[in-house]
Structure formats: structure tokens, C-alpha cells
Write a structure and sequence with these properties.
single chain; 2 domains; six-stranded parallel β-sheet; globular
Length: 257
């Protein structure tokens, strides 16, 4: 999507993918910085480890505890997180109202953290984080409580039904619905989607497959659904603008995806 956007704008840009083992991250980063590249993305499992290898991490990314986008500023490399604003933009694209939303987030990993920060920045009022490991959800809430304005609470996934009945937005932020996960259907069946109000929206951050088992269940109820492709698009568009200074051609990037 980045090279398609560059071609549409007449920019000379090359976006390449590199597979880097965790133990080789520091060396790979040093090589790229020494080469003077303009920027790069990182995905799991490097989003936390990269933070100690940069010249600066902006406060928003520091609060989330993860960096997915690095931008060269003069001779310094600065870490950002475009997942949080990209997620919110994807919801707005789909017509989902975020302001004053009552949100249930399933998951307590990096994607959930970005979602919580983005939703709070967009003025969601209540965010409940559910996890099969309650201590992980509690740790997320503790670590973010000083950085967000929304009311946060953590609960075990077993307590989902009562939370779902009052939610205006459900966010599936785990890897459980990935097409490579043999337990995706079972996981989706365990969520009390039937308890969601009829006006609720359901988003799954996963984009492989686009129509996850969770979204299928929500669609069967006639609920508004949002797949993970929009978040991928918008986080990338924000990064593109950071690297190039040009407004990204969203239609071109979406078509490429």
C-alpha cells in the first residue's frame, strides 16, 4: 500500500520487508540507522523491545508501551504508535460513534492497549477490559489509568455477559480469531454476543480472515461490524504522512490492500 501511494503521488519510495529474530533486533536496527533510512514499521514481537533502541519515543507511544512506526528526524530516530489513531479512524470510517461510547475490549495485549488509548483519546466514556488472565487485564488498567481520561476497569472474561449487555461497542483485540487458530470458532461461541444491545457495533482487529467468527456471529444478529483492514489502512496512512510529508491517497492504499 505504501509503494502504491508513492506511485500515485510521484514519490520515489521503496518499502521492503525484513524478517528479524528477537536476538538480532539491535544489530538490524543499528544497520538501518547507519544506512540513514527514512523510517520503518515494526510488528510483533518487536514493538516493545525497539523502544530502548531509539533516540526518542513520543509520549503517546510511551503510554501505550509499544512502537510500531519509527521516523527519522534529522539524525535522530523517533518512535511513534500509529495503531491507536489508526484504529479510531477506521471506526469513524465505518460510521461508528466513539464519543461517549461504552466499550468492552476483549484482550489485554498490545493491540488492546492501543485500542484503549485511542478510544479514550476519542472521548469514549467507559472502557472495560476482559481477559482470560484477569491479572493481565488488571495490569493493563493500572498502567494506563494515569494516561487516559475514560473510566477503566478490568474483569475476567467469565464476567462478560453483564458487561456486554451495557456495551455500545465491542472490540475483539486478541489473536484468537486468526484463521491460523483452530479454536477460533470455539472462542467466538464463548462470547455472549447475544447479550449486546441491538444498536451496538462489533469490531475485530484481526484482518486474516476479514470475516472472523466473531464478526459472523455479530452479523447474524444484524449488528454493525468492522473488520481489521481499516485499522491496517489508517495506521499505515498516518505513517506514510509522517515519512513523506504528503497527504496519503487513501483510496489508492485501500485498493492496494
Amino acid at each position: 500500500m505504501h509503494e502504491a501511494a508513492a506511485r500515485a503521488l510521484g514519490i520515489e519510495l521503496h518499502y521492503e520487508r525484513f524478517s528479524v529474530d528477537p536476538e538480532g533486533l539491535a544489530e538490524a536496527v543499528r544497520e538501518k540507522h547507519d544506512a540513514g533510512i527514512d523510517g520503518y514499521n515494526l510488528t510483533v514481537p518487536h514493538k516493545q523491545a525497539i523502544m530502548e533502541l531509539l533516540d526518542e519515543v513520543v509520549p503517546g507511544a510511551r503510554a501505550i508501551g509499544a512502537v510500531n512506526t519509527v521516523v527519522r528526524s534529522d539524525d535522530r530516530y523517533v518512535g511513534h504508535n500509529t495503531d491507536a489513531p489508526g484504529f479510531v479512524r477506521s471506526l469513524r470510517d465505518a460510521g461508528v460513534e466513539v464519543r461517549e461510547a461504552r466499550v468492552v475490549v476483549v484482550g489485554a495485549g498490545g493491540a488492546a492497549r492501543a485500542g484503549v488509548v485511542g478510544l479514550s483519546d476519542a472521548e469514549a466514556t467507559e472502557i472495560t477490559v476482559l481477559s482470560r488472565r484477569p491479572e493481565q487485564a488488571e495490569q493493563l488498567v493500572r498502567s494506563l489509568s494515569e494516561h487516559v481520561s475514560a473510566s477503566l476497569r478490568a474483569l475476567p472474561l467469565d464476567d462478560a455477559e453483564a458487561c456486554f449487555s451495557n456495551a455500545s461497542l465491542l472490540v475483539q483485540a486478541t489473536s484468537a480469531t486468526l484463521e491460523s487458530n483452530p479454536g477460533a470458532a470455539e472462542f467466538a461461541a464463548s462470547l455472549p454476543i447475544e447479550s449486546l444491545p441491538s444498536e451496538a457495533a462489533v469490531v475485530d482487529m484481526v484482518y486474516q480472515p476479514l470475516r472472523t467468527a466473531v464478526l459472523e456471529r455479530a452479523e447474524a444478529r444484524g449488528l454493525v461490524t468492522v473488520d481489521g483492514l481499516g485499522m491496517l489502512l489508517h495506521q499505515g496512512a498516518i505513517a506514510f504522512e509522517m515519512w513523506t510529508g504528503f497527504e496519503p491517497p487513501l483510496d489508492v492504499m485501500r485498493a492496494a490492500l
